[in-house]
Structures are given as structure tokens and as C-alpha cells.
Design brief:
This protein is mostly helical. The chain is built from ten helices and four strands. A two-stranded antiparallel sheet has the order 1-2. A two-stranded parallel sheet has the order 3-4. Strand 1 and strand 2 form a beta hairpin. The termini are far apart.
């Protein structure tokens, strides 16, 4: 496992550096757009729980109003959330708002692929054994949970759904099961497949390819909205 971790870390550094170099012209344009619109802030840092239960500041492009975690639905974002800025809607829809986390990858706080790092209020929803397993590995910019729940905002916006209650009762348990699946199956080959699937579902958010690609995933619940690809 030590060789796997070393190889994974090397891949993380190389890919993050190359991605930042290639994407730098686009990132500069986004930074200028954010400075000129919305709250006139470029980056947003939020405390998340990382490997070994250590907290760190996750980097994102600023897409919401200031103090959003203390407004409305708190840590949860729903479709059409009024706290999201105009530019922020585009950045969130394309997942470009997550690109600054490549900085977290370079500093070793995150990996390109892994369990999604949670805020403490959501982290505490996992049972202790699930927390221990998930946070024995570095959190990821993307991962199986991110792919399956790329439409989480839509799930939380369905008529008759109370967002926090639905997240606690439905989403968090299944998300935890998915992250446990990743931890027990992790490998460089799996990471590569998940990166490719992430790119695919950004382009085709209605796709069900992830469940066809990994038939041994925890059984998909009936409430999970998945459109036919």
C-alpha cells in the first residue's frame, strides 16, 4: 500500500501542475469575471474534514453570497438557490468552481480522487466506523460520491422535500456507503476511471454510465433521480 500511496501522490502532483498550467488562461478570465461581478470576491475557503480527521481550508471559486452557510438552507444548496451569483451558476453547473482545489492537491491536503471532504455538520452524520474508514485516505476533488450525486441540488429541490431532512435521512447514508466502496476498492486504475467518468457526467449529467461501469456499487435507491442516458 505504501507504493500505491507514493504513486498516487506523484500522479496527483504531476496532473495538478499540468492542469493548472493548461487551464491558467481560463482561470485568469474567471478570476477577472468574479472580481467584476457578484460579491467581487475570487476565492472562497471553507473548513472541511480531511484525512486523519484533520481540518483544512478547501479552495473554491466564490459562487455564493457572503455568509451563505448561515443563510437559508445552510450547508446545502438547492436548484435555483438565490444565494448563488449569476457567474456562480455557470461555475457550479460546469464544476469549474472546484478547480482551485488543485491547490489543495499540491499541498497534500487533498487527492485528485477520493471521498468528498465534508463540513463538520455533514461529517457528523456518518457513523463512527464509516468516518474512520473514509477518513483513513485523503479526500478527493472528485470521486464516486461526487459522480453519483452530481445532481444533488436537483434532489434537494423536488416538490415536498425538506432539504436538510432529506439529506440526513436519505443522501448521507447512501453517500457514506459509496465512499466506503471506494476505500475498499481504491487503486490507480479505479482513480483513472473515475476521472474519466467525472468528465463524462459534466458533459452528460443525465448519464447512468457510473452504475453500468461498476455493477457492484451499493444498490441504487429508488429515490435517486437518474435520467436515462
Amino acid at each position: 500500500m505504501s507504493m500505491y500511496r507514493a504513486a498516487k501522490r506523484l500522479c496527483d502532483i504531476l496532473i495538478a501542475l499540468i492542469a493548472l498550467l493548461i487551464l491558467s488562461p481560463i482561470l485568469v478570465v474567471i478570476m477577472i469575471a468574479l472580481l467584476l461581478t457578484g460579491e467581487h470576491e475570487v476565492f472562497y475557503r471553507q473548513t472541511r474534514i480531511g484525512a486523519g480527521y484533520k481540518t483544512f481550508g478547501i479552495w473554491k471559486f466564490a459562487t455564493m453570497l457572503k455568509d451563505s452557510p448561515n443563510i437559508g438552507t445552510g450547508s446545502l444548496t438547492v436548484r435555483g438557490d438565490p444565494r448563488v451569483t449569476v457567474v456562480g451558476r455557470f461555475l457550479r453547473a460546469t464544476k469549474i468552481n472546484e478547480l482551485p482545489q488543485l491547490i489543495n492537491v499540491l499541498t497534500g491536503e487533498m487527492s485528485l480522487v477520493g471521498p468528498r471532504p465534508q463540513m463538520k455538520v455533514d461529517f457528523d452524520l456518518y457513523p463512527p466506523d464509516v468516518r474512520d474508514a473514509i477518513y483513513s485516505v485523503p479526500p478527493g476533488v472528485t470521486g464516486i460520491g461526487s459522480i453519483v450525486f452530481r445532481d444533488e441540488e436537483l434532489l434537494l429541490s423536488r416538490p415536498g422535500v425538506e432539504p436538510r431532512e432529506f439529506y440526513v435521512d436519505k443522501i448521507a447514508p447512501y453517500k457514506g456507503a459509496l465512499e466506503l466502496w471506494y476505500v475498499s476498492h481504491r487503486s490507480l486504475a479505479l482513480d483513472a476511471r473515475l476521472v474519466l467518468l467525472t468528465a463524462w457526467v459534466v458533459l452528460r449529467p443525465e448519464s447512468t454510465i457510473v452504475f453500468r461501469s461498476f455493477p457492484d456499487l451499493p444498490q441504487r435507491p429508488d429515490w435517486l433521480i437518474v435520467r436515462n442516458s
